[in-house]
Amino acid sequence: MVEVTLCWSLQPRKVHELTVSVAAGSSVQAVVEQFIAGQGHVLSSAESAQLKFMQPGIWNRKVAWTAPVHAGDRVELYRLLKVDPKVARRQRFKRQGKGRTGLFANRKSGSAAGY
Fold first, then answer.
1. Structural domains present in the chain
2. SS3 state at 3
3. Is the CB of residue 72 less than 8 Å from the CB of residue 78?
4. Per-residue pLDDT for the chain (115 aa), expressed as one digit of tens each?
5. What pLDDT is attached to residue 113?
6. What is the predicted pLDDT for the residue at 58?
7. 64 contact partners, CB below 8 Å, separation of at least 6
8. Which residue, 8, 27, 58, 101, has fewest beta-carbon neighbours within 10 Å?
9. Whole-number Å distance between alpha carbons of 114 and 15
10. What's the rounded Cα separation, in Å, for the pair 11 and 58?
């Protein structure tokens, strides 16, 4: 048996972390399934179903559900992005207005906005 840490976040700023003992050579999928079977009372049925659709990773690197886990690994489940980060940045910049804030606050006189 090896111990791994399982981390997930179903809501922003609310991270859950739990240590799970699994058989040596188990996959990420086996770790999540064993957690749901053994600790199902912690989560509702809808929340436990959501865990199966999240992107898995080990130590901040995305992996496949079939990837083996080793002793001391941190298995993480990532939520899907709702908004592309590039699009969100463009929208924030547009709301702030051109040339008034941030990097472009002190521009040369006579230059175009954003330069």
1. 2-78 (3.10.20.30)
2. strand
3. no
4. 889 998 888 888 888 888 888 888 888 888 888 887 776 556 677 777 777 778 899 998 999 989 999 988 899 998 888 888 888 888 887 777 655 555 656 666 666 655 5
5. 58
6. 92
7. 28, 56
8. 101
9. 38
10. 20
3-state secondary structure of 65: coil
Unique residue bearing structure tokens 């699009």: 87
| pLDDT at residue 111, rounded to an integer | 62
Tokens matching residue 34: 């064993």
Count helices and strands (H / E) in the chain. 3, 5
Tokens of 87: 């699009």
- The single-letter code of the amino acid at 80 is L
Residue where the block lists tokens 């086996």: 30
Q: 37: exposed, middle or buried (C-beta count within 10 Å: 0-12, 13-18, 19+)?
A: exposed
